[in-house]
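queue> holo job accepted (zinc ion)
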Amino acid sequence: MVNQQQQNNFQVKQNQAAEQETQNSGKCRHCGHTTIAGADICESCSAWQLEGQCCFCYAAVKPGQKFCGTCGNPPEGMVCKQCGTHSIFDFCPQCTNTVSRDAAGYLEQFKTMPEVVEILQQINTLNADTAGISPSQTKKTEPPADTAWLSELEKYEERFQQDGKAEQKVGQESAPQPKFTFGTAKNKDVSEALSLADQAAKLPDLMALEQRRAELESKIAALQKRAFSSNQEARKFYTSLRVTIPQIRTVETVTPVVVGWQCNFAGLVHPRPENCERPYLGGVWVTDFSTSTEKKIVYDEI
Ligand SMILES: [Zn+2]
Ligand SMILES: [Zn+2]
Ligand SMILES: [Zn+2]
Ligand SMILES: [Zn+2]
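queue> job finished
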């Protein structure tokens, strides 16, 4: 619990910080938003704040100067060749295309950094290995024939079909309406159990993948732990990273699992139409959509 003295000290410090900020701050030349002292751009509208300085390299420039004598770029920014957005950044803030003279070269250099090369290679092999033991491939659409429950189910089906035939002889010749289904839950349970068993068998592989993913994530994080000589250098670096390295995110995948085939003849859920006596009456595949979350490497849409 925070005591009153600490609370007061905290309040004083907060007030001091706020006061200092007000003293140091100015107004954006473009939109009037409050800016902190020394800010090169406005946080609100991104307008360049350092009058008389090139927006790409901070070198001093005269009013109306067409090109910066230091970096060779127009000191007040230039239009992105790809999307037409006016940019005061090395990379277009709209489409991330290279804008300044050295942006493309910077990006190429960035991509050849040993850490970046290593990360990209690891992402590729991880992708390939993940595809090799994808959880979706562990799903079986058909239960094996040698399980006890299947013969039990077949006995039930036989009996039910005989009942149905007897009933049909008594009633009209039209196709009987589905009466009840007892196969659904059984089939589904077994299908789920099999899927779980399959996943359990692949657990060591999946765990190894998970560990490699975690290592990759910390490598990408380590690459970003650095300070820069200027704001523009930092922006250049992080945009290069964003367009080069795909991100690892948790995504939801929906996997349809076929439980069985429900016939119109008796409304039974068979493993397949081949197990039904009168498939000509039609039927429907019974599908269970299971949702799973997994970590996947995805490229950001910027
Ligand atoms: Zn910030
Ligand atoms: Zn502004
Ligand atoms: Zn310049
Ligand atoms: Zn653009």
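queue> The first helix runs from residue 4 to 24.
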